[in-house]
Write a structure and sequence with these properties.
catalytic activity; Carboxylesterase_BioH; Pimeloyl-ACP methyl ester carboxylesterase
């Protein structure tokens, strides 16, 4: 594990293939997730000769809880800083869920740095929620049961194939939510003023949207994937046997998609 120093704290990240000479890939997970969800994809990309940095969000995993902002834009600035700190050029960024919006914002802000984005089940827009759903969301993250209810909800989003090490990953989520300061940071991420990305004028990065065929976050996962792809002018790939976390449920499919995008970026270099 490594740490990236930021103005108000540190971001934890793992680096795979540190000595490789290929593309730098920066992976950003979703809210209430741990960077370990990208470990299988990162290993495959490193085996293919690339460097892969997998970060924790602010207040998540082993990142600090001392930040003032926990938004998707804040995560975008961290991803940019991480890419710069690792001397990345024509970087490919991969984001899941909340992280999908973060890497899109990063690509819009730094077209000179980010050459490609892969969005896995991205939340580029906020799903409409009524009063009952809002109440349910707040009950889900209320103390003292939040570590277990959030972990159970996290598990329910894994429709399809059960990932290797799924029990250990759920244990990471529970452990992450137990300390009061970390719980507050995760809660701030969930209910923060996160930005929607409804248009992407000037986006230069090559783009791919990958959504699990069984993703329970949307009544029609393919329709959401196609909408997201229309925003970023990207291709769509539906991931079989997968829910919301294709990077851990089908790392073989996701890694292959990222490698194809890397090849496209290289062809245009």
């Amino acid at each position: 594990m490594h740490h990236l120093d930021r103005p108000q704290g540190r971001i934890a990240y793992d680096l795979f293939g540190a000595g490789n000479g290929g593309r730098l890939v920066v992976c950003v997970p979703g809210m209430f997730d741990h960077r370990a969800s990208f470990r299988f994809v990162a290993e495959r990309l490193a085996d293919a000769g690339h460097r892969v940095a997998v970060m924790d969000l602010r207040g998540h995993g082993d990142s600090d809880t001392t930040f003032e902002a926990y938004t998707n834009r804040a995560a975008a600035t961290d991803a940019i800083a991480l890419a710069e700190g690792l001397d990345g050029r024509d970087v490919v960024m991969v984001g899941n869920s909340f992280g999908g919006a973060a890497v899109t914002i990063a690509a819009l802000e730094r077209p000179d740095l980010v050459a490609g984005v892969v969005l896995i089940s991205p939340f580029l827009r906020t799903a409409p929620t009524g009063p009952a759903m809002k109440l349910l969301q707040r009950l889900l993250v209320a103390r003292p049961w939040a570590p277990w209810t959030v972990a159970a909800f996290y598990a329910s989003l894994h429709k399809g194939r059960v990932p290797e090490g799924h029990r250990e990953q759920k244990a990471r989520i529970v452990a992450m939510l137990r300390p009061a300061d970390r719980f507050r940071a995760v809660r701030a991420t969930i209910f923060g003023p996160n930005e929607e990305v409804l248009t992407a004028p000037g986006l230069r990065a090559k783009a791919l949207v990958m959504v699990g065929e069984q993703d329970p976050d949307w009544a029609d996962p393919r329709a959401e994937a196609e909408w997201a792809a229309s925003v970023i002018d990207g291709a769509v790939e539906m991931v079989p046997e997968s829910g919301h976390y294709a990077q851990s449920q089908r790392p073989d499919v996701v890694a292959a998609g990222v490698l194809r995008l890397i090849a496209e970026v290289g062809a245009d270099a």
